[in-house]
Amino acid sequence: MTDSRAGARSDAGKVRESNEDSWIVREQRGVALLAVADGVGGVAGGERASAAAIETLSRRFYESLATGDLRSSLATAVREANDAVVRAAADRGESSATTLVAAAVRKGEATIANVGDSRAYLVRGTTARQLTTDHSGARPNEITRFVGDERGIQPDVFVESLRAGDRLVLCSDGLTRHVADEEIAERAAAVEPAVAADQLVDLANDRGGEDNVTVVIYRSRRSSPVRAIGTVLALLVLVAITVGAILLAIARPAL
Prior knowledge:
The protein is about 40% helix and about 25% strand. The protein is built from six helices and eleven strands. The strands form two sheets. Strands 2, 3, 4, 5, 6 and 9 form a six-stranded antiparallel beta sheet that branches. Strand 7 and strand 8 form a beta hairpin. Helix 1 (about 45-65) runs antiparallel to helix 2 and helix 4 runs antiparallel to helix 5. The longest helix has 27 residues, at about 225-250.
């Protein structure tokens, strides 16, 4: 993606020596694909798991899109990313996994999938709304769903309508353990996506940087077709009422 619609930054943080997060921002066939993966299972294993998940997701999503819709293509790509991570870990005799949150955006609609506790937010105006549900357990850093599960996975997949100017924020938990939702909204809404991503990562690091932190931000330039049609219909009704009032006034006899 060559314009300022999207920006991203990933950093190891202030405590860990390496970065086990991976991310992607890509656009092809009129569809933008955004994703963040947070590797689990030790430095080398986590890095490999998140990288394999992102690579497989990106490749298989666009391949599947040739014959399917956004929802089925994204769900298929996430499940195949799971299979790829399982195979890679088995080949190396290691145990590794990763979270994964992804969004496919076309014509003002975002199809979102997630497994684990990496999040997607919708920033509208100065409010951030968490779109995804964390698949996390009672213990710290415990996730109940993950990519790399030999039993297979069932990602959460849903569609969100966008308005022009909305921001989608995808992030690993290295951001949300240090930065509140209100602060995410404030930074994401105020500046260009790339600048906002830098500011949010810096903020997390300034507050301890205890984990790897990755932020991907996408700015919507158009509303969903359903919302646009609704706006047009509302305008037509308003025009009809106005014209009717004028005609009624003209037709009314003078007293």
